[in-house]
Amino acid sequence: MSPPKSLFDKVWDLHSVRELPDGQTQLFIGLHLIHEVTSPQAFAMLEEMGLPVRFPQRTFATVDHIIPTDTQLRPLSDPLAEQMIVALERSCREHGISLFDPASGMQGIVHVIGPELGLTQPGMTIACGDSHTSTHGAFGAIAFGIGTSQVRDLLATQCLALARPQVRRIEVSGELGQGVYAKDVILTIIRRLGVKGGVGYAYEYGGAVIENMDLEARLTLCNMSIEGGARVGYVNPDAATFEYLRGREFSPRGEAFDRAIAWWRSMSSDPQARFDDRVELDGGEIDPAVTWGINPGQSCGVTEAIPSPQQCPEEERASVEEALRFMELKPGEPIAGTRIDVAFIGSCTNGRISDLREAARVAKTGKVKPGVRTLVVPGSQAVARQAEEEGLDEIFREAGFDWREPGCSMCLAMNPDKLVGREISASSSNRNFKGRQGSPKGRTLLMSPAMVAAAAIHGCVVDVREIL
Amino acid sequence: MAERKIERVAGRGCVLRGNDIDTDRIIPARYLRSISFDGLGEHAFEDDRIQAKGNHSLDDGRFAGASILVVGENFGCGSSREHAPQSLMRFGFDAFIGESFAEIFAGNCTALGLPCVTLEPEDLATLMDSVELDPGQDLVIDLEARTVTSRAGTMAAGIRDGTRQQLLEGTWNATAVLLEAGDAIEAAAKRLPYSDGFAE
Predict the structure, then answer these.
(1) Which end of chain B is least crowded, N or C, by CB within 10 Å?
(2) Taking CB atoms and an 8 Å limit, are A195 and B77 in contact across chains?
């Protein structure tokens, strides 16, 4: 009998090519996703070294970060953005890599299209030059965000040199209340464990709350693992995972699909698997979360007050003071009622069809408050088509929301969608860093898409549970 | 294709206080709209520096010409953009000393041959005070001995064994090392049940 293993250990061991002299592992990567921002320099380095792409059929590309969301018509009005797309098109053509560009009808945010095309599968290793690659762990894959030099390594060898992390099991028991979403769960986890609590760890999420989540909710959860410092986050695959994958473009078909299910199931963590650390949370105690600071760990429940630096442990005091000064929020005041200028629904965290459905439920309850600028940005062309088929775009427009084309949009503002000046946004994205949304002095309140829609209608942070 | 061996880094320090400094602050996303890393050095910490109106550490005349950046906890968190260490390298930094580093940032630094070493919080506080008081002194990061030496004394420095070995042996450009596996890569691919789409 071999000792019980976690999914992480099974996947790592299966993909290990060899141990490197420096003690790291040479890990084979089953799926490499690339986009226009972090790959061009890698292709240039590869060409300089005179190396081919080793497994072009295991590499897939899309354009997401720099694509405008008003019109995707070429050439793009930003010549720098156009140059980046042209470079990606050329690299893909020269190296025989599939590119899902706007003309393909399959374009979208890289972490949205991987799962929806069935490229992301259980038991795989996945890497992409983007920190939110942890998203793909929702399917029981082990997925790493990497830098450009590692994109080069991967193009040249389909391998990465990695140190094996420890594994922490995070168990969320009980049941989530109405109006509480995966976004609130992960914000609460990060608040509890801190933004660097996961450094050196892979997070395995489990427990009744996680098992009852649909795959899109699990994607939201795993997506923000990196915001807690964990490069990798995953959920063991189950019947819901297999059903999601059935019939997808790149999923196995027919009998091969049955064989796939048997193998995928075998890759789950064994019941007696040992973890380096365990953390437990009660899902029933999680409230809709809102960030008040300048990192994703600085959040509170929507019914709570903004903390005062005096209440915080001494080592956090300076950070809290800096955050409150930047955000211009008053300690002791309730977070509910905080006025907003912009509402952004979208991103690799919360730009999927289920996110839009929940936001649309809220949008039906009123009209956008005059003076609030809104962006509803589907995560992919497929999500946009599905939403339009369901009439969600009409619901949003009717309520005064701006319905946009797919892309990363205002999550990181590498495209025309940006905050201006001191604007404060309610955002369904993943980072509330200073300047993240495009204005150096712009401010971000992270929350679930339903909470963003509610804030748009009321012009301030409100508890979505009072609306739904 | 071995790279330069990095056994020690010596130079003046620049103290940048604060925890959880993210890569969006190190290099704002608008400078990622490029197909090369050229010119990133001049934009390092641009928005923070503008808002500090000349009072940012990178603009502090006392630290001019520094080649070692001394930082707090969880430096480089957030986005995986290699543009962040690229911009700091191009600004003139060869190494980082901090309480802790975000994982992807530290890996990106290694891939560029930029050591990130950690100090115990008390040692780091002492070092920061010492460099601010006497910014003309040289700091020495000795990877062989795992120490940081300054006028405040010699302190034990932390660095992951594998990373240290890569830097010491000049194997920090991983492509060459990974290529040495040769056909074992294809053999590893063949072992994977999904490599042929679960064909019988």
Answers:
(1) C
(2) yes
Check CB contact of A14 with chain B, cutoff 8 Å: yes
Q: In the β-sheet with A342-345, what is the strand arrangement from edge to edge?
A: A373-376, A342-345, A424-427, A443-446
CATH of span A289-466: 3.30.499.10
What is the CB neighbour count within 10 angstroms for residue A320? Answer: 22
Angstroms from A363 CA to nearest CA on chain B: 31
B28 token code pair:
């704002």
- Answer yes or no: do B103 and A131 touch at CB < 8 A: no
Give contacts of B 106-145 with A, CB under 8 A.
107-108, 111-112
Q: Are B194 and A30 in contact (CB under 8 A)?
A: yes
> Which candidate from A163, A231, A263 shows the least CB-CB separation from B104?
A231
Question: Which residue in this structure is represented by tokens 């168990």?
Answer: A171
Domains of chain B plus CATH, in order, are 8-171 (3.20.19.10)
Q: How many CB atoms sit inside 10 A of residue B61's CB?
A: 8
Span A104-124, pLDDT tens digits = 999 999 999 999 999 999 999
Q: In CATH, which of 3.50.30.10, 3.40.1060.10, 3.40.30.10, 3.40.630.30 is domain A166-285?
A: 3.40.1060.10
Give the residue among A402, A422, A418 at the shortest CA–CA distance from A410. Answer: A418
- Name the closest residue on chain B to residue A250, using Cα atoms: B197
For the segment A23-62, what is each residue's pLDDT rounded down to a tens digit? Answer: 999 999 999 999 999 999 999 999 999 999 999 999 999 9
pTM for the complete prediction? Answer: 0.97
* Domain A7-162 in CATH 2.40.50.180: no
Whether residue A434 lies within 8 A of chain B, CB to CB, comes out as yes
